[in-house]
Design a protein that fits this description.
single chain; 79 residues; alpha+beta; three-stranded antiparallel β-sheet; 3 strands
Length: 79
Amino acid sequence: MRRALFINAVGETDVGLGWELRYHHQGVPWAVQVWLLAADYDGPRSADRVEPMRSGLDDVTRAAILRLKEALVKRARRR
């Protein structure tokens, strides 16, 4: 993990709270943002991406994601 950032956009046009994680895996930089938005938010939502992700991931990529999650949990426990 290279960076973890909390984003408070409560006063912005697209009201929400977010987190951004930046890391490198096998030399490739990655950035992931996760947002909590109002239930009536009319922009793109994660729920709209579930099916494309399910069809786009295979066992290898799913396993890589789980390894990253497990490593983050272990790291958090050591703090």
